[in-house]
């Protein structure tokens, strides 16, 4: 099976696991999640594997079965270790919280002063592949690495480049980051905004503010509050 096909099947099974969980079919949810994990383990896709481990730890941690709780602990520890190897400590801290909630042994959640040796370019490749970049080009990997460092900051980011170089893929790294944390990611195609309505669309308006304003409308910036707004084609 090709790498892309394996990633897509694993992603599909993770979605099915989430649906089964929401509908109370926990046996089916666990089966789909474990199959997704096996697929990701087979191709050594560490970023997506860490996310799958974390999802399953969250799913299992509320179970009353001691065996399931040990399983949740194992998944949380594996996820935390992988996130730390990838330099994504913020994501790993969530797993540490799960371990504490499960009363894991203190050595599992104690601060670690040494991180497993991991070549920077390999780390960047893991992150790049997880977001759709299949490349070994050093400069592209450096751009991906720098973008990943901005994910948890409030910085304003301007992405520039020729058509087809992957600006949207970089932007969607931020979408994945926000969605994982339950925060909004709002995309706006600036070329589709009529010039005379830009202010109203971005900032909203109250009923009666102008002719035709029959209702109060939230602006796009308000919809994105607490998350990220992607102003696509802003230079056009």
Structural write-up:
GO terms for molecular function: ATP binding; DNA binding. InterPro entries: P-loop_NTPase, Sigma_54_int, Sigma_54_int_dom_ATP-bd_1, TPR-like_helical_dom_sf. Keywords: Activator, ATP-binding, DNA-binding, Nucleotide-binding, Two-component regulatory system. With 236 residues, the chain is mainly alpha-helical. The chain has three domains: 3-109, Serine Threonine Protein Phosphatase 5, Tetratricopeptide repeat; 119-182, no CATH class; 183-236, no CATH class. The chain has eleven helices and four strands, in the order αααααααααβαββαβ. The radius of gyration is 21 Å and the shape is globular. The two termini are 41 Å apart. Residues 113-118 have low confidence and may be disordered.
Distance between the termini: 41 Å
Low-confidence stretches: 113-118
What is the C-alpha radius of gyration, as a whole number of Å?
A: 21 Å
- What is the tally of helical segments? 11
Structural domain count: 3
**Mean of all residue-level pLDDT scores:** 80
Q: Count the beta strands.
A: 4
What structural class do the secondary elements suggest?
Answer: mainly alpha
Helical residue percent band? 55-70%
- Major sheet characteristics: 2 strands, parallel
- Proportion in β-strands: 5-15%
CATH fold annotation of the largest domain: Serine Threonine Protein Phosphatase 5, Tetratricopeptide repeat
Helix and strand pattern:
HHHHHHHHHEHEEHE
Strands in their spatial order, largest beta sheet = 1-4
CATH architecture of the largest domain: Alpha Horseshoe
Estimate the global geometry from the Cα principal axes: globular
CATH class identity of the largest domain: Mainly Alpha
């Amino acid at each position: 099976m090709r790498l892309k096909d394996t990633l897509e099947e694993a992603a599909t099974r993770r979605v099915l696991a989430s649906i089964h969980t929401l509908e109370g079919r926990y046996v089916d949810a666990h089966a789909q999640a474990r199959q997704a994990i096996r697929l990701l383990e087979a191709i050594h896709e560490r970023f997506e594997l860490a996310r799958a481990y974390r999802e399953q730890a969250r799913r299992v941690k509320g179970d009353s079965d001691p065996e399931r709780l040990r399983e949740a602990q194992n998944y949380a520890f594996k996820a935390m270790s992988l996130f730390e190897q990838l330099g994504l400590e913020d994501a790993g801290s969530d797993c540490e919280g799960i371990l504490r909630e499960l009363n894991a042994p203190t050595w599992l959640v104690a601060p670690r002063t040494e991180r497993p040796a991991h070549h920077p370019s390999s780390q960047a490749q893991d992150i790049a592949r997880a977001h759709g970049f299949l490349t070994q080009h050093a400069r592209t990997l450096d751009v991906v690495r720098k973008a990943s460092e901005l994910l948890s900051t409030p910085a304003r980011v301007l992405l520039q480049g020729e058509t087809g170089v992957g600006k949207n893929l970089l932007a969607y790294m931020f979408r994945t980051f926000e969605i994982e944390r339950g925060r909004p990611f709002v995309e706006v195609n600036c070329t589709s905004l009529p010039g005379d309505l830009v202010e109203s669309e971005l900032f909203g308006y109250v009923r009666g503010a102008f002719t035709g304003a029959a209702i109060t409308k939230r602006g796009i910036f308000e919809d994105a509050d607490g998350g990220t707004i992607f102003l696509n084609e802003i230079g056009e």
